[in-house]
Write a structure and sequence with these properties.
mainly alpha, two-stranded antiparallel sheet, 10 helices, elongated, transmembrane, SQR/QFR_C/D, Cytochrome_b-558
Length: 227
């Protein structure tokens, strides 16, 4: 297995893992966004609570969630490694002219963007994932079946302006992170061609703007509904 260890520890290997885990997380973002839209149903949280129970009790989804956790860890650890190796390889930072000509702001600041997103993940997991598993969430009943009332936990959190502000800023960071990461992942995997590159970039830019914007809109709407 030494060849495998050497491969993934190389600069190219780390970029390949970043690309693969990044694309997997992009798929997760779409699924997660669809689920979050259940929060906007005017049903007192029934749709969201039923969705949350399905996502935490279905055996296939529970198994996939462990893969998701591993993917997050790999993406974060390898991302830190890439940032550090890039700094060692280029100890003198870009000057303004060179940086603006050869690379985008987001590509030069992936470490900063990743740090903001990581802090957001810690807060997000503490407020929701941890509370869902160990926080003693109240229960509600629909058609005689008991459900954890995760909707109330979420609505309470999004009634706080500072939590909504953190989410909004974090989604802006995610937008820039995706802006660079989407097309970069395809390039790393060799899935680029002069004929299709404009389409890949266009889809990537659209995804980077629309998905984080929709994530940010949900807590903003819930905040104004709570006023």
């Amino acid at each position: 297995m030494s060849w495998f260890t050497n491969a993934i520890s190389s600069s190219l290997g780390r970029k390949l893992l970043m690309a693969l885990t990044g694309l997997f997380l992009i798929v997760f973002l779409v699924v997660h966004l669809i689920g979050n839209f259940q929060l906007l149903h005017h049903d007192g949280g029934e749709a969201f609570n039923i969705y949350a129970k399905f996502m935490t009790s279905n055996p296939l989804i529970k198994t996939t969630s462990y893969l998701l956790y591993a993917t997050f860890i790999i993406h974060i650890v390898w991302g830190i490694g890439l940032v550090m190796s890039n700094k060692k390889a280029r100890p003198v930072g870009y000057n303004v002219t060179k940086g603006s000509t050869n690379s985008t702001w987001s590509s030069r600041n992936m470490g900063l963007l990743g740090t903001i997103i990581f802090i957001f993940l810690v807060i997000h997991l503490k407020n929701f994932w941890y509370e869902m598993h160990w926080g003693g969430i109240p229960t509600v009943a629909y058609a005689g079946e008991s459900y954890n009332d995760l909707y109330t936990v979420t609505a309470t959190a999004f009634s706080e302006w500072w939590i909504v502000a953190i989410y909004t800023v974090s989604m802006i960071a995610l937008m820039f992170h995706l802006y660079h990461g989407f097309s970069s992942a395809f390039q790393t995997l060799g899935l680029n061609h002069p004929k299709y590159n404009p389409l890949i970039k266009g889809v990537g830019y659209g995804f980077a703007i629309i998905v984080p914007a929709l994530f940010a809109v949900i807590p903003i709407i819930m905040f104004y509904q709570s006023i």
